[in-house]
Amino acid sequence: MKINWNYIKFVGLIICITGLYAFSGHRSDSRTVEGITLKFTGENNLYITQSMVNKLLIQNYGIIKNMPKEKLDLDTIEKVIEANEMVKSAQVYLTISGELTSNIVQRQPIGRVEGITKFYLDEEGKNMPLSSNHSARVPIITGNITGKSLEDVYVILNYINRDNFLRKNVIGIHIEDEENYQLKFRLENFVVNLGNVDDLEQKFNNFKAFYTKAAKDKTLENYNIVSLEFNNQVVCTKI
Question: Taking a C-beta distance cutoff of 8 angstroms, is the pair 107, 88 a contact?
């Protein structure tokens, strides 16, 4: 009987590779976490700190450094970090050197609600708690706070934030009632009656044309109310 040495060599090679793979896998799992690196991505990372995230991880996992890698559940760690109300998203991974790394994106407030309950409105239109670390310089929202009115305020804030002039000058939105909104400007006692959120582009274009002319004529301080509620008109009330 002729022995097929090529076949035996092939089987032996497979056994060796499998053994090496199993050994390296076991060795890798038995290695410990060398350290933790937290990276905040994006802008205005002011609302949660590295020490707060570390404390969050310790409360849920204990000390992670020197923990065996096989005991780590990266998906669970991501969910723990994302459970913090200041965090928009988190990506957690383990480097080859054994460093547990997390890329964290913080939520960004675009308005601050001053009602019975105080909170931010974030870039997705969701409620965001105030931060003990930083107070955001965003327009203040007052008045008749309802779910519908906040939806409309979110639309207004999104438009304001896309416009450099409005972003610099609008400091507050007052909700008279649903579909009846007022904008407060940096100029003292200067209020813009916006009405509802229909035709915002037309309304603001009309307003900026009025504002530019009044500023050139040095008559802005003569007005305290500017109404944009009427069709394609700017109606001004003098002090």
Answer: yes
